[in-house]
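Saturday, quiet lab. Running sequence design on the structure tokens for the scaffold JK sent over.
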């Protein structure tokens, strides 16, 4: 039996995250805010019309997408027939006005775009690619399912995922970890592990059997640093538009002006640099198809790219006073972020226009690229996620 078959069998036995209709319909759990996916993944674009939930489990993620975008067409696929049967049963009981199309489909199938109808604005794939031997195959198939201005959200394991150390540790006690078999013994050992760990992951010994069967036990794990996920994605024609961690980390570096060392790193470089210093257990990554010239606002290119306001921050300006720079206060309630930036009057004008109309005039480069200080401010705005190169 291949490791993919074994993974499928595990999920057939224990559909993820559970089979309880109430929890499935109301849970959102570990998904990052969907508004963030839209703002950073599809900057300057209206709400998505078609969304694919790739590896949807029993439907929690798809129902969360339905709540966020009530008018979108949603297709949700999973390769476990039992899992899809649970999702359909829950949906029937819910009587949604706009039902979700739940399909049994394998993401490694080259015919995925045809099976799902393709043409998606947004794809979410949370907690799936870490357990596949060849995640690159799926990244290519998902690319074929996406519109050119679309985005892919990936939730994947990082180097610091507990399973990285836990699996060899459990094996040292003689436990077979490729499949969740001896659940009682596993829970006893996890209790021992929990007593030695006081982190914010919660008590592993109390997690559901579906979680333990998928996230701790299983035949295959890609617990990779961000740099490795990035390299794999780049190979398949994707570029990182943002991560859910790097804006907060960047903000921390700004407290004592250490961020200057990082200029002019792209959001993807920043994310990899931060992850190298402080490895994450789980990455929340937004990817776009790699356009010519990339997504970096500072990248040299023949014509000025359309710069747009992502809508992920609000901005307020201080009252102009003689010979004092104006301060722009950017706030992002979702990530509890506040940043103060000193601006020139010309910068205030374009930023105000940008925040109001969402799109900068084609001449924005004259204001923002003219000297090192302006470029650094533009870089900060882009690295935090307030402005972006519009998806083409
Ligand atoms: C950890 S669960 C995550 C479910 C859901 N995304 C969530 O966050 O609630 C992983 C899901 O991916 C599905 N899966 C794994 N490999 C797959 C593949 N090659 N094709 C389709 N689904 C797959 C599994 O059956 C399982 O339901």
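Result came back. Writing it out in full:
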């Amino acid at each position: 039996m291949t490791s993919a078959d074994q993974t499928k069998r595990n999920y057939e036995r224990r559909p993820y995250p559970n089979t309880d209709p109430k929890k499935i319909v109301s849970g959102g759990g570990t998904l990052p805010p969907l508004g963030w996916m839209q703002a950073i993944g599809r900057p300057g674009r209206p709400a998505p019309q078609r969304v694919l939930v790739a590896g949807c489990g029993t439907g929690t993620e798809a129902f969360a997408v339905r709540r966020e975008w009530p008018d979108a067409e949603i297709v949700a696929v999973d390769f476990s027939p039992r899992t899809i049967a649970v999702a359909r049963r829950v949906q029937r009981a819910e009587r949604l006005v706009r039902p979700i199309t739940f399909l049994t489909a394998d993401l490694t199938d080259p015919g995925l775009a045809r099976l799902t109808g393709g043409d998606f604005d947004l794809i979410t794939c949370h907690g799936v690619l870490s357990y596949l031997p060849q995640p690159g195959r799926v990244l290519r198939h998902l690319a074929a399912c996406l519109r050119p201005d679309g985005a892919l959200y990936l939730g994947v394991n990082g180097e610091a995922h507990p399973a990285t150390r836990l699996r060899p540790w459990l094996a040292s006690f003689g436990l077979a970890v490729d499949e969740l078999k001896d659940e009682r013994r596993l829970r006893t050992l996890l209790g021992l592990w929990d007593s030695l760990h006081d982190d914010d992951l919660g008590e592993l010994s109390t997690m559901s059997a579906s979680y333990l069967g998928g996230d701790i036990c299983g035949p295959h794990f890609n617990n990779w640093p961000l740099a490795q996920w990035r390299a794999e994605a780049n190979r398949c024609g994707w570029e990182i538009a943002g991560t859910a961690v790097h804006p907060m980390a960047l903000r921390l570096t700004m407290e004592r002006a250490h961020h200057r060392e990082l200029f002019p790193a792209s959001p993807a470089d920043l994310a990899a640099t931060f992850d190298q210093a402080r490895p994450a257990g789980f990455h929340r990554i937004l990817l776009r198809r790699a356009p010519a010239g990339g997504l970096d606002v500072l990248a040299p290119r023949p014509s000025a790219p359309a710069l747009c306001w992502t809508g992920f921050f609000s901005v307020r300006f201080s009252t102009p006073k003689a010979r004092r720079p104006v301060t722009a206060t950017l706030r992002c309630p979702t990530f509890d972020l506040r940043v103060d930036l000193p601006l020139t009057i010309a910068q205030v004008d374009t930023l105000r226009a940008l925040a109001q109309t969402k799109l900068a005039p084609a001449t924005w480069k004259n204001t923002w690229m003219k000297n090192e200080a302006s470029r650094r401010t533009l870089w900060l705005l882009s690295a935090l996620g307030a402005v972006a190169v519009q998806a083409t």
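Notes for JK: The chain has a mean pLDDT of 92. The chain is about 40% helix and 20% strand. Ask whether to fix the surface positions before the next round.
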